[in-house]
Amino acid sequence: MTTSSTETSAASRIRVPAQVYLLAAVIFCLGTSEFMIAGILEPISADLDISIPQAGLLITGFAVGMIVGAPAMALLTLKLPRKATMIITIIAFSALHILAALAPSYSLLMLSRVLSAIACGGFWAVAAVHTTRIAPREVHGRALAGLVGGLTVSNLVGVPLGTWVGTQYGWRATFWAVAVVTALAAVLIAVTTRSTKEERAEAELHLPTLLRAELVAFRGPRIWLALGTTALFQASVFAAFSYFSPLLTQVAGLSPALVPGVLAAFGIGSFIGVVVGGRLADRSIFGNIIGSLAALALSLLALWLVADNGWATIVMIVLVGASGFSIAGALNARVFQIATQAPTLAASVNTSAFNVGNAAGPALGGAVIALGWGFRAPVLVAIVLALAALALVWVALRVERSWHSSGSGRAGNGSGETQTITADCGSGPA
């Protein structure tokens, strides 16, 4: 057995800490809240006497709150222990859902959604940092993919369940349910979370020192290339995903009754992609990113080619989910690789980058439909965005090699990173 295969075998025996799955369960609740609005637009519209497009803006409001809120919360809570930050943000999230459930007006409901997103973004960033602190380095990819797994399961189970609760008992009941479950999650995190050695060391630092350490990661192009890749990838997936329903009914000729099942199949593919991709990321972060983006572009191209064939379209949609979401763990791990010692702000900005993609992708897909190019056109937009992300990764790889050959990789970048490009792109654990 070679040294590389021995290391890989050893890494495969290292387990992801159980608490990561608790954090993933919380993210399941957060993801359910983020996307459940799409399933209860009509009852919200009827109850608050607003149009469905106005109700749809609640989704946009949440995305904007995530984009702005994640880095803002990271800075505001920088001196707080991570356990306290996670508990505070979850309790705030729960309380804001109670406010939403009681909201007598659209404006108050919108305010609750934006503030909920700020709390959500704050939890996401700190939970990701905490995950990298409690998980062994050899399984960072799997651990971070586990967090994203909570989000994919929310689309698969949480959103349909929230839609059912909303249609059976009223849209306000859905908000009450999320409030109760997230409050329980706050209790569980309070009981199970322990501070790490790194966190205790950081607590000794003054705020200006912490801020300088956090900002070091944003010097130079490496972090910006990583964030750009995140935004382009997410925009690619959501440019296509947002218009799967009309693609299936208007182009593939499937019955509207089959659409929820196909979207559930997409969710299953996404979950499989997250699990497999997390393991691949632990072997090679760049290898996983490049392979996933190439597979995403090819599966999107195949979807565009077979879109007028119902069953072939379903198969390709599942493959889009699997190939697209296989990159999630690697994208998060890459940010932590760049900002090893002070990653909170970088992780929060990466969360914002995901939500930039969430907002930009559907807008670009809708724009080409508005131009009269048909419901296949968003898939072409998604292909272009995936290829643009792949090109950005190629640039990032060249920058990484230059950064390493200049000696920066061995000396560190000021944030404590000492990993080399060989370790990142080789066959051993990243």
The total strand number stands at 0
How far apart lie the N and C ends?
20 Å
* Quaternary: single chain
* Principal-axes shape call: globular
Structural overview:
The protein is globular and about 55 Å long. It contains 20 helices and no strands. The two termini are 20 Å apart. It has 430 residues and is mostly helical.
Give a brief rundown of this model:
The chain has 430 residues and is mainly alpha-helical. Helices cover 81% and strands 0% of the residues. Residues 1-8 and 410-430 have low confidence and may be disordered.
Spell out the blueprint of helices and strands:
Layout lengths: L2 H11 L4 H19 L4 H8 L3 H25 L5 H21 L3 H29 L5 H30 L1 H22 L4 H7 L3 H10 L5 H20 L2 H8 L7 H25 L1 H22 L3 H16 L2 H11 L5 H27 L6 H29 L2 H4 L9 H5 L5
